[in-house]
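Work Package 3 committed the consortium to producing structural models of liganded targets before the mid-term review. Because experimental data for this complex are still outstanding, the team generated a predictive model from sequence and the ligand definition alone, so that downstream docking and mutagenesis planning could proceed in parallel. The input record is reproduced below exactly as it was submitted to the modelling pipeline, together with the SMILES string for adenosine-5'-triphosphate.
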Amino acid sequence: MADPVPRSRKLSRMEVVLSSNCHCSTQTIIPGFGRAIPNRRSFNYPIMDQILALTPRQIVAELDKYIIGQNDAKRNVAIALRNRIRRLMVKSDIQKDIVPNNILMIGSTGVGKTEIARRLAKVAQAPFTKVEASKFTEVGYVGRDVESMVRDLMEQSVSLVREMKNETVKAKAAESVEEIILDILIPPVKSAGFTRSISVNTDTDSEPGTDCELNERTRERFRDKLRNGELDDRKIEINVKASSPMGIGMIGNGMMDDASMAGLQDMISGMMPKKVKKRKLSISEARKVLLEDEMSKLIDFDEVKEEAIKLAENNGIIFIDEIDKIASKSGKGGGGPDVSREGVQRDLLPIVEGSAVNTKYGVVNTDHILFIAAGAFHVAKPSDLIPELQGRFPIRVELQSLTQEDFSRILREPKNALTKQYQALFEAEEVYLDFTDDAIEEIARLAFLINQEVENIGARRLHTVMSHLLNDYLFEVPDVIQANSKIMVTKQMVEDRLSTLVKNRDLSQYIL
Ligand SMILES: Nc1ncnc2c1ncn2[C@@H]1O[C@H](COP(=O)(O)OP(=O)(O)OP(=O)(O)O)[C@@H](O)[C@H]1O
Ligand SMILES: [Mg+2]
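The resulting structure, written out as tokens with the ligand in place, is given here.
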């Protein structure tokens, strides 16, 4: 199992520091580039292989596909992500003491904070949840309590683990599903004297032996048809477990927290006899329903829970957006909503620091969950957060304001770039949209200008500008602009459509 990893790769300073801190050989700490990692004790999930192979550079490269600039932020999240894998590879007792370095991302609105988090979640394939700090209320008030973020994370983790496990039993489950469907189509012949009529009429009073053979042959014929998809639209009746429409949410409302309520709900529905309902479905539909059913029969849910807890604890990432909204402006705490904001910050402390949170799947320890907080901090400053909380986010990364050049790159380069999105929309109706280079430059210039003159909303401005620019075309397709047309957006067009608006400040305040 412990494949020695070649030492050929040069150690970066970071790795050297790590290895000297951890009293363990470099072999366990440095995985080969994209190579299987030795020593995977606490995380044997197949899906993890992909992320385990991701080095910080690769993570940044992945983020680069969607986010322009913001290199500092990308590097830091990449390091944080990789550090957790490094930590899991540490053999000695110090492993438990290596705390995640939580990150605070600071940057004005629309520069990519949330986008980085969103993409990170995809890259990480780790349990990930994004919450808005402003949605929480202090314990005791009506609203969401901060612990719910850990419960959300757990939900994610459970579905991740379940997915991974499903993958491992899928083939086997599919086999049983095929048999079940065949049983419905061609009920098997009971050998003990009693012969059931088979759906394919034989009109002979033959002996059970021949019946059996015939049945078997028909069954095989149908199996082929089933596999070819020839029977997909045929309706069959299957038994499905009815989900119990329990109304105990009503009783529990306000009197207990979500976790206990969900637990209670599970307990009660576990005690109720499982209702089975007959449903008529097409074979292709039925196959899906039955597959879910069969897979869950093959999976031990206790194991799922256990692994999900481990996964959330060791690899979970919680992104707390809008954290500046719970920072009090003055720090004097002078009454009003500030009191509650500070309360939320205080409630956050133990979770970020590490505590045990009760979820319906069991107790989750938050010690090693990675927290990334982000905020624009236009009004409040990071120093307006209570000092204890500031201390829990030791890594500060500032996101840069976007330049006009960034804007033109954002319009063009990301995988989901706006120009590509609009092109796809038009192409759906076989209209081909394109932009000249100077048109894109002009859009970027105007967006940048409006941001300066009206209000800086970052790259979001590009959305409003683009939609204003292209709205008329979107309206005219396909009535006036028909399939196979080509639209070339030129600088002149951009100027014609937008420059009067840009010049007229009042208008642009409303429209762009
Ligand atoms: N650096 C960037 N590269 C590519 N696209 C970006 C970048 N920054 C912002 N965008 C685009 O702008 C939109 C808004 O960005 P995002 O949601 O990340 O803003 P934010 O920094 O979270 O702002 P807020 O503080 O208002 O929440 C995104 O949908 C994204 O498409
Ligand atoms: Mg945001």
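Reviewers should note the following from the model. Residues 167-300 form one domain. These observations will guide the Year 2 experiments.
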